[in-house]
Write a structure and sequence with these properties.
By secondary structure, the chain is α+β, with helices and mostly antiparallel strands. It has two domains: 137 residues, Pathogenesis-related Protein p14a (3-Layer(aba) Sandwich); 54 residues.
């Protein structure tokens, strides 16, 4: 009886190990914060934000080296103070600060931004957030016209905590009227440039033709003078 019980216990251990081992390996490979989430910070920033976009049917973002370089530069600028303030640069921007003493990761930053979804109403673009909160971080993450992202994280000096930033291109949270204003302004400027280019080419060709005619007339005049003499 004792042998049978030991055998049964051993079989249970083998079955449990067989079931849990693949998940444990996957958790190690993909990340410690959830099954299937990459461990690498860059991939995790991208993966989690694209997951939030997929939840609302928006196309995924692509990681962009230029945008990421800007994020890294700004994160480095905040290393000395860890101040939670925006760079005022050309991109859309989400920032996050975590106090000292905790192992803050991209998961925490994205989760903080994504938590604003609970207050956002897409149908009328309203935000019912409590005082001191908003929905702009979440809106930027899922902004349909944004296609590129780059993020960075830095541990601040003097044990001030962790600062994280994601930059987005084109920027989100742009009012529709303002967006179309920029769009049509760009179109008008482009048309003006093309018009000026056309005028320049026309004038150049006109002057060229005039010079050619002048040379021909001069040549003919010289020829006639020679004949007369």
């Amino acid at each position: 009886m004792a042998a049978d019980a030991a055998t049964a216990l051993l079989l249970r251990c083998v079955v449990i190990t067989t079931l849990l081992l693949p998940r444990a390996i996957a958790a190690y490979v993909y990340g410690d914060s959830g099954f299937g989430i990459p461990r690498n910070s860059t991939e995790r920033f991208l993966y989690l934000q694209n997951q939030a976009r997929a939840d609302v049917g928006v196309a995924p973002l692509a990681w962009d080296g230029t945008v990421a370089a800007y994020a890294e530069k700004y994160a480095a600028a905040r290393k000395g103070d860890c101040d939670l303030k925006h760079s005022g640069g050309p991109y859309g921007e989400n920032i996050f600060w975590g106090s000292a003493g905790a192992n803050w990761t991209a998961t925490d930053a994205v989760a903080s931004w994504a938590s604003e979804k609970q207050w956002y109403n897409c149908s009328d673009d309203s935000c019912d957030a409590p005082g001191g909160r908003g929905c702009t971080h979440y809106k930027q993450m899922v902004w349909a016209k944004t296609t590129k992202v780059g993020c960075a994280s830095v541990s601040c000096d003097a044990n001030r905590g962790t600062f994280m930033v994601c930059e987005y291109d084109p920027p989100g949270n742009v009012p529709v009227l303002l967006y179309y204003y920029y769009y049509y302004t760009t179109v008008v400027i482009l048309l003006l440039v093309l018009l000026l280019l056309y005028i320049y080419i026309y004038i150049y060709i006109y002057i060229y033709i005039c010079i050619k005619k002048y040379i021909r007339i001069q040549t003919l005049y010289t020829y006639v003078l020679k004949k007369i003499k």
